[in-house]
Amino acid sequence: MDEEPSSYERVAYKNDSVYHYMKICLIFGNERKPLSAEQFKQLIISGLKELYGEVGAAFPFDVLTFDQFVLSAILRVYNNGLVKLWSALTLIGSCENESCAFRVTQVSSSVSKLILVLKSTGTSCRSL
Amino acid sequence: MSSHLEKCARSLLVCEKSSFMNEASRHETHVCKHSFNYKISVLIPECGVLPADIANVISHFKSYFLVRDLPVYKFLDAKFLDTVKKGGFYALSYKTRIDEDNVVALLSSGHLVLSLDKDTYQQLGLEGKPSEYKHRKDMRYVVTVDLTDKSLVPGTKRFQQVLLSLKERVPLKSDFLLTRCPPGAEEDGELQALLSQHTYEECRPTVISRSLTDIPRPSLHPSDLRGNAHSCTPVQFLEWLGSVNLNIRCNNSASSFLSTYVCPEPCATVNKVLLCTVTGFIPPEDVYALLQELRRCLAEPGFTDWVSLTVHGFADSPVSWGAAEHGFLKGGENFYNLVCFKNQDYWLHMATGSQDGCPP
């Protein structure tokens, strides 16, 4: 550990993160299907393949967290895959013959910036 | 595929490295300029229980008030004006969205900021300027009224004009979060007296402490802010910090189907990490008091090498740092993080989203 106080330094990064993070949740029209995290990711992958084909959908994304009770998740995707992933999520309309829709509540370039929705402080929760 | 589909909205991260002992250090300015804070996270590695001194500082955080249906012109009442002029008064409209609704904020400097949609702005008749964050046409306007201005005292022409606009032309009202950090002597009950004619509730900040075990932790070296040699990069560090806050697993294998996220290298596993989160309407003065206490604790022998203090601003606040305009777009993020080291060095990370100026 340095004992000398550091000299001042300032660095500004613009669009430095290679990832984007999406906070999403899945809602069902009628009956809610129980889904595991793997099934949840598979549903998104199948939506991507339907829209962009095998090759167009071949990019990685991660399901960082998944809450199976409220069906919400945090996804991590490379910047160049964000638009593809978002568009595929928008167009996914059914899961096992049950109508459903994805709601994107927050998109950010850093996972630190994803905010927890807190009623006490009126923190915003909206569909983007 | 078209290349413009691969572009993302702009995000900014400004990192500073300095020492608290440095006379020109701007840490106090940065903390005090970030007016509207809704969440603070303190992360202390190698610690299982929140130290009593830190818990004590948090327990002395100011209460805040949720006032229902407060007309905006009430801020022009003589009693309110006197309180506002003394400084340390913060108000923010509650559950209003910066990209859809009319949002009102009162800064400790005495500036009343109204972020209004076009219709309201045109009816109001107060001079403002178009929002910096627009698509094609000006659809949103920002009006700033300096309540400490000498020309804005009851009886003057300017005062009558502002009162007429806010009381009769457009009787704006909203639920508000209010808090007060009076400089100097404590004046308990003054805010309650002001609010006595309105429906309000007094709220305390919510404190949640979690002790996490066996967490991979990145190695940090105070002199290596950019992560060239001994530390990880600031982006990687903030990603790790976010993953701890959101309970994200960071020991996945590279072939995992669900997630391949891992803690940035170089890293080491720590037995325990304490994460304390405070949420509410927290004035910057309280954040600064907590920072000072963390610094004091760090100086004690046997305490951990570094601690991290993350402060999130309200996503729907009309300002971020100082009076700089803030917008939402896809997240409304505006936060800063201070990593304090044992030798009184610190790193400051300030991050904003697309609709924000460069942090100061």
Please describe what this structure looks like.
Chain B: It holds the Pfam family Ribonuc_P_40. Chain B: GO terms for molecular function: ribonuclease MRP activity; ribonuclease P activity. Chain A: Belongs to the eukaryotic/archaeal RNase P protein component 2 family. The complex is a heterodimer of chains A (about 130) and B (about 350). Chain A has about 130 residues and is of the alpha+beta class. Chain A has helices spanning about 35-55, 80-90, and strands at about 10-15, 20-30, 60-65, 70-80, 95, 100-110. In chain A, strand 3 and strand 4 form a beta hairpin. The radius of gyration of chain A is 18 Å and the shape is elongated. Chain B has about 350 residues and is an alpha+beta fold. Chain B is globular and about 65 Å long. Chain B starts with 11 loop residues before the first strand and ends in an 8-residue tail after the last strand. At the A-B interface, strand 1, helix 1, strand 3, helix 2 and strand 6 of A face strand 1, helix 7, strand 12 and strand 14 of B.
Briefly characterize the structure:
Chain A has 128 residues and is α+β, with helices and mostly antiparallel strands. Chain A is built from 2 helices and 6 strands; from the N terminus they run ββαββαββ. Chains A and B meet through β1, α1, β3, α2 and β6 of A and β1, α7, β12 and β14 of B.
The tally of beta strands of chain B, per DSSP, is 15
So what's the oligomer here? heterodimer
Q: Write down the Rg of chain B.
A: 22 Å
List the total number of helices of chain A: 2
State the strand order across the main sheet of chain B.
Answer: 7-8-6-5-4-9-3-10
The helix fraction of chain A, in percent, is 10-25%
Mean pLDDT of chain A: 81
Provide the structure class of chain B.
alpha+beta
Shape of chain A: elongated
Main sheet record of chain A:
5 strands, antiparallel
Determine the fraction of residues in helical runs of chain B and give it as a percent range.
Answer: 10-25%
> What is the average of the pLDDT values of chain B?
85
Give the class of chain A from helix and strand content and strand pairing. Answer: alpha+beta
The radius of gyration of chain A is 18 Å
- Bin the strand percentage of chain A: 25-35%
Count helical runs of chain B.
Answer: 8
Weakly predicted, low-confidence segments of chain B = none
**CA-CA gap between termini of chain B:** 38 Å
SSE order of chain A, one letter for each helix or strand: EEHEEHEE
Pfam families (chain A): RNase_P_Rpp14
Family (chain A): Belongs to the eukaryotic/archaeal RNase P protein component 2 family.
GO cellular component, one term (chain A): nucleolus
Keywords (chain A): tRNA processing
